[in-house]
Amino acid sequence: MASQRQLHVGPVAIGGGAPVAVQTMTKTETANLAATMKQVHEVAAAGADIVRVAVPREQDVEALKTIVAQSPIPIIADIHFNHTLALKSIEAGAHCVRINPGNIGGPDKVAEVVALARERGTPLRVGVNSGSLPKHLRQLEYDNPVEALVTAALETVQLMESLDFQNFKVSMKSTSVPNTIASNRLLSEKIPYPLHLGVTEAGTKWSGSLKSAVGLGTLLADGIGDTIRISLSTFHAEEEVKVAWEILKALKLRQRGPDLIACPTCGRLQFDMDTVVAEVERRLEAYEDPIEVSVLGCAVNGIGEARHADFGITGAKDMGMIYSKGEPLKKVPTEQLVDELFKEIDRYYAAGKTVQRDEAAAAEAREWLAANEDATQMTPERMAALEAAAAANDDAADAVLESMLTPAAAAPLDEAVSPVAGRRFSRN
Ligand code: SF4
């Protein structure tokens, strides 16, 4: 269940129906101002709503004041073990402070941090990690790790409430994807506070992204989770941000930048699609609009599968085609496909988001498509033609089906169904 309460980390709303906020953590020594600010700007440019910095030493608190002042996005101070650093971080102006009450030195120290946070209006992130549960829950952790995590989180929530403090969000981190899902499902039913989701120490860019997509994606699809952090073993924090966005975009929870659709390729492929897709993905990073771009390795199914794409390309050995919303725009030599695709995209924006169509070039592309698509494939267009023909005349439907199975015999049938099937069914 979605959280009922909302808090604000700087201007960013968390919980209570606000868009799921993307956050990450810098991987620099925080006191190294130049390196930290460079990474803060990189993650902000990649789409981070919030960024967290580790504050393990006095010099990091000193740097924090400048970081808070210069950062384009809100800063969370990440504190372990030392409540004095938490107090100083609040005084330094951190937009939020993360503490795990279990390791900050006891309830009195937590109360001190909470008192100052209340006074300054600073929200806290409080949480528990599967690796550092309180001693009295160790046996339960062994018997039932999900219950142990939720119990520890609830104890933390009770501690906050006993201090009459509600300006906090909760995190419950586990390296196990099933435990992350089960514990957050359970906790979300028991508390109204916003939830910070993450699979801790998820792994490399490859495995960590997948674990996070499965774990966080499952919860987010249930409406659980208010802010997410993808933990990847990479120095490039912006990679975590990109993965977080892909998860949110895949679930249609938020939109940012273009959406690239690409076929998986198969034995029909006749050009270097790996390179083409990578190049298209790289060049799309320069666009902020949520435009949909499709790359199909061949025209076996026509371009029906990409009919929703704003722009797309499909290729063959020497020649390829650019299309928009399922309609051919022009054919071009394969090695120019990417350049010409982006020319069309730029023309579209220059014309106020209107597709620029040259009818002669489009006709030429249609011809190329008709010659290259596989006439035996059951495309959506052909299925529609089949259904329409069936409704009108059973014999015609049989003929359409036969034409699909034996394309050589298809020519006389096209005319019979072409008014229904339209251009795509015609094989001139
Ligand atoms: S579009 Fe063509 S190359 Fe790509 S997977 Fe489908 S059949 Fe294979």
Question: Layout of SSEs?
Answer:
Blueprint: E1 6-9, E2 12-15, E3 21-25, H1 33-46, E4 50-54, H2 58-70, E5 75-78, H3 83-91, E6 96-99, H4 107-120, E7 124-129, H5 138-143, H6 145-162, E8 168-173, H7 177-190, E9 195-197, H8 205-221, E10 227-229, H9 237-250, E11 259-262, H10 273-284, E12 292-296, E13 300-303, E14 311-315, E15 319-324, E16 327-333, H11 337-350, H12 359-372, H13 380-392, H14 394-405, H15 411-421
Parallel strand pairs: 3-4, 3-10, 4-5, 5-6, 6-7, 7-8, 8-9, 9-10, 11-12, 12-14
Antiparallel strand pairs: 1-2, 14-15, 15-16
Bound molecules: iron/sulfur cluster.
Which labels suit this protein?
428 residues, alpha/beta, 15 helices, 16 strands, elongated, binds iron/sulfur cluster
Description of the molecule:
This protein is of the alpha/beta class and 428 residues long. It has 15 helices and 16 strands. The protein has helices at 33-46, 58-70, 83-91, 107-120, 138-143, 145-162, 177-190, 205-221, 237-250, 273-284, 337-350, 359-372, 380-392, 394-405, 411-421; strands at residues 6-9, 12-15, 21-25, 50-54, 75-78, 96-99, 124-129, 168-173, 195-197, 227-229, 259-262, 292-296, 300-303, 311-315, 319-324, 327-333. The strands form 3 sheets. The chain has an 8-stranded parallel β-barrel, surrounded by 6 helices. A 5-stranded mixed sheet has the order 11-12-14-15-16. Strands 1-2 form a two-stranded antiparallel sheet. Helix 13 (380-392) runs antiparallel to helix 14 (394-405) and helix 13 (380-392) packs across helix 15. The termini are far apart. Residues 407-428 have low confidence and may be disordered. Iron/sulfur cluster (SF4) is lined by residues 263-266, 268-269, 296-298, 300.
